[in-house]
Here is the input.
Amino acid sequence: MSRLSPSLLLVCSAVAVSCSGGPSNLGWRAHGGDWAHTQYSPLSQIDRGNVSQLKVAWTYRTGDARPDGRSQIQCNPIIVHGVLYGTSPQLKVFALDAATGAARWTFDPFAVGADANALGVNRGVVYWESGDDARIFIAAGQRLYALAAKTGRPVPTFGQSGSVSLKAGLGDRAERLYVLSNTPGTLYEDLIIIGTRVSEGPGESAPGHIRAFDTRTGELRWTFKTIPHPGEPGYDTWPADAYTRIGGANSWTGLTVDESRGLVFVPTGSAAFDFWGGNRHGKNLYANSLLALEAATGRLVWHYQFVRHDLWDRDLPSAPVLVTVTHEGRRVDAVAQTTKSGHVFVFDRETGKSLFPIEERKVPPSDLERESAWPTQPLPLKPPAFSRQAFTEADVTDVSEAARAAVLARLKTVRSGGQFVPPSLEGTVIFPGFDGGAEWGGGAWDQSSGLLYVNANEMPWILSMVKIDSTRESSDFARGRRTYQLNCTACHGVDRNGDPARIFPSLVNLPKRMPREQADTIVAGGKAMMPAFPSLSPQERRELLAFLYNDPPKPASSSGSDPVQPDVPYTHTGYNRFLDPEGFPAVKPPWGTLNAIDLNKGEIAWQVPLGEEPRLVARGRRNTGTENYGGPIVTAGGLIFIGATKDEKFRAIDARDGRVLWETTLPAGGYATPATYAIAGKQYVVIAAGGGKMGTKSGDAYIAFALP
Here is the structure.
């Protein structure tokens, strides 16, 4: 097999650079740059001295951005043998000549049987080759496709005519539930190992087991159950029947492989329901954990759980990074994991032992019914947090006196006391917020400096719990309201106003905007960012539409209005940023940062604001930072390249101190991790400009930059 290990790939790359006096052909072979997910390139043609001369080399437009602004591109493209592979807003896969941007082929998975409405987002593809057999793997809808890399056609000998179900190995319960895969899997020999995205709301959820498929045949080779079954380690950290009814504990952020040790590192998320766990008492292994699995078999080697019995949606948000550090006078091969709370944990790859001290701290109990919050939670003492850890009156915005007064008044009505204050009916501040701290863009590792570069959000959110109706009323309207509370409030809110910043539309006045039959089709099959709800029966969909279309409630019969005790007694009001009256974050700037963390010393080397708020720049307020999505890459030329920011700019930053050396405005926000590569001795940097987040316009472009 011709696939190289990360270490051997770097050695060969360095040889190519030194022999040619400049970069030879060097690609970006995997999501995150390599299987170690370092987001690093040894290319150095573009450096601190000449980066200001960068120009657009080519632009490729996919042509399928949604005109309503509700599409995105989050893809980190890969470049192999001079060909760039990426995905479009509507999840078409394409291959381009990486030197010119000229299209070679396009594959539309929804033209060959995928569930066409359930799009979601995609963060990249996987390239595998053995001899003359080269394949691209792409997850779309609820299937994993294998495409011939030269033509883009499905490989007929893989699975069923070129695809396998992403529900394979998840059990019968998953067949009627939501299962997708946002982030590409990873490779080990002839296995593609993948995680999934599943529902995390108060309704039913599929389990998030990790699986490995044969790259040639599509055969399911192994499954690791993240919610253990009887007799398996970790089973006693759940109620006895949890494996039959609880979902989540999935890995949606990306996996990392240590090929020399035969290990795959898997970060997992919370168990469902995210914010109430009264039906899943216990620590809940292996939710919110970093798993070291034997890549060939799926056998657990070691694990570490970052949040016990998660009530805050503290998924591990990014792929772990393989690093080698100098620790206590010796070189240690380690794995670094960033968190939404703004921490970096560093573990010995072989043993799982933390390289820095971790303190188990007492945390407050919950006062929600039937809930039992875990009494302690772990926090690392080094490196220090790279995001603020509590939102107090001293942190309230200073953008204006009016903004400060409004935020102070709201802050006094909710709970805010740092990490791990449980969800509540009056509202609990989550800070760092649901989108970090660190997010899915991942960190970039420079072995030569020992620095890990991580971008972070500094946005408080307010989580408010709501009791679900506890009467069994007879009308379709009333039953539909319960169905809405269980399945829809996380995106569209209790009041149905939606969240434009997260591209979730309002459902208010739906009868004037959409025929009922069309809405029924969308609920059943999904559309764009909205998942399908196959778990809802035709009757349940009819009742939901009765609520959404405001059918007059009929009086409940005496036999049909008895109190019920729902399995999950709470929902929540949605994912609500804590904003001032003008729509700026309630906390003092900076609202987004770029951080350089020295993993040898366990210290923050530098921290700078990332991005600017355009409305405040017009008022003379600079360097506020902004929310940011998509990660950095770092090169041997001493540069960090990153888009990510709300101001829709793409920047080159000095890796030594965080100074901006070059920037350009993209046609839409670059909410994706860029890539860099060389063709015929010329270095390129490419980023997807898909926009569509934080209220910004959508786009459809991939733009490559190079020196003149």
Notes: The helical segments are 6-20, 401-411, 476-487, 489-492, 510-513, 516-525, 538-548, 614-617.
